[in-house]
Amino acid sequence: MHMGNFQSFLGTFKETSLACILDLGGLLAGFMIALQLGVFEITPWAIALYPAIISVKAIITGLLTGRLSTALHLGTAYPRFFGNTKSFYKLLSAMVVLTLTTSATISLVAMLFGSLFWGVTISEFPAILTVMVATLSLGLLITVITIKFTFISFKRSLDPDTIVYPAVSILANILITFLYIVVLNLYFSVGQWAIVIFGLINVGLVLAVLPLNARDREFRQIIKESLPTILLVAFLVNITGTFLKGISNIVNGNRTIYTVYPAMIDMMGDAGLIVSSAATVKLTLGVLSPTLGAIKNHAKSILSAWVSTFMFFVVIAVVALAVNGPFTGIALGNLLLILLVSNVIAFAAIVLVLFAISILTFKYGLDPDNFVIPLVSALADALTTIALFVALLLLF
For position 26, what pLDDT does the model report? Predict the structure, then answer.
């Protein structure tokens, strides 16, 4: 391999491996699901909503970190909570409104998918809406953590794309998984009124900030630019949830699959973002032509990212089986076969789809913060879940 090509291969491998190391934290989220599997099995929508919960929190977190990092570098926001600029508080207000809007939108779409594919009746819509709003309302705590982390990262000159967003994303996944489990347990043990108060936090904040910002141009622009992506993602995450529901039917309580699932989608999503981001840079520099056939000239970056995810899929399989047991050669071989087959299927699909998106991004100048990154993340989650579903159908 030519030295320049080797350096390119090694650079992408290191970047993907760093992201995968951070994504190992997803095993904690998966382990929490495995421990609380009983609460997810009470009703079909409980497990089907999980991808929507983590994807939406990741998308809002991504929108926030992207815009806030840009504002900090432009000087239109300062790295502090109090005494900040109007732009900062407009952004914060927009995130509050988007959180409630997204909760309601996904609940409506979930009801459609639920009635068609999950065996859910219209009478369960209030439960879905209440649980979704309550969970994401509590998830506003993650917004505060995200902002603080972004401030610290800016002060220390850390790269928002390779350090800030991946680290905050995995922390958000762990916390939102914990909060979702808490909300589900309260709902099924005490009742709907036990969690309504959590949802009222978000509703109250929206009622407070909306009258102050509704006519503001900057505020409306953030909402306007973000809503189309959220509406599209609302359908994607419910497709993901439908296939996760199918996975739960196949594995029938196998805790290792639930343990590895959050880490799987995190790793494949980050690998896809790294590959598509590198492709966008090459397209901008004129190294790649904006055609699907040019993917062969991006092969070394694709291969290095795949090798990294393949390697870390082995790691999460070993850890998940060691935690859940029984750790035998046959059990490990079976789990590895399922995960590695799903890895190959998912990575091939993600690369093809995301390379096409990179070309569209280049041709039409789409905003990576408001459109590309959230869409890529949701697509990667869906394709990885579908790949795992197919692998389980073939091998489980």
Answer: 93
Structure tokens at 190: 């005490």
Q: How many CB atoms lie within 10 A of CB 226?
A: 25
Q: What's the distance, CA 250 to chain centroid?
A: 23
CA distance 148 to 129: 29
Cα separation, 241 vs 111, whole angstroms: 12
C-alpha–C-alpha distance, residues 262 and 304, integer Å: 22
180-204: average pLDDT: 93
Residue 20 or 244, more confident: 244
- The per-residue pLDDT for range 79-109, each reduced to its tens digit, is 999 999 999 999 999 999 999 998 999 999 9
How far apart are the C-alpha atoms of 192 and 131, rounded to whole Å? Answer: 8
Q: What's the Cα-to-Cα distance from 233 to each of 52, 53, 279, rounded to whole Å? A: 9, 12, 23
Q: What is the mean pLDDT of the chain?
A: 88
Alpha carbons 266 and 255: distance in angstroms, whole number: 18
Per-residue pLDDT reduced to its tens digit, 142-178? 889 889 888 888 888 766 555 666 777 788 889 999 9
